[in-house]
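Exercise 7b. Backbone tokens:
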């Protein structure tokens, strides 16, 4: 897609704060987004501003855009932590190994 027609999130970030970021605007065009970010960063108000390409429509409510980003992040984290057949098999083998180890050394139990 042409970058001049793509949508971008303008995000403000307070470094060192776990929840210190939020979307402040969803805009159309990389050039316009970059100009806004440069102007905001020039203010030196304790926030850092950056842009991120998105599929959201320009003009989307910033609070809604922030919530969508948080939900997307939570979904990605949940998928990354979802156990696979291999990890379940390995954890079963590990449990069996632990049980055998404890059975061989009954004195080592706390």
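Sequence design result:
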């Amino acid at each position: 897609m042409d970058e001049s027609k793509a949508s971008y999130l303008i995000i403000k970030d307070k470094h060192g704060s776990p929840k210190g970021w939020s979307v402040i605007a969803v805009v159309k065009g990389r050039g316009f987004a970059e100009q806004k970010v440069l102007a905001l960063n020039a203010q030196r108000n304790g926030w850092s501003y950056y842009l991120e390409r998105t599929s959201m429509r320009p003009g989307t409510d910033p609070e809604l855009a922030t919530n969508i980003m948080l939900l997307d992040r939570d979904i990605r984290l949940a998928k990354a932590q979802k156990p696979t057949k291999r990890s379940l098999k390995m954890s079963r083998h590990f449990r069996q190994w632990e049980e055998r180890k404890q059975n061989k050394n009954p004195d080592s139990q706390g």
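Instructor comment: Strands lie at 7-13, 21-28, 48-54. The longest helix spans residues 62-81.
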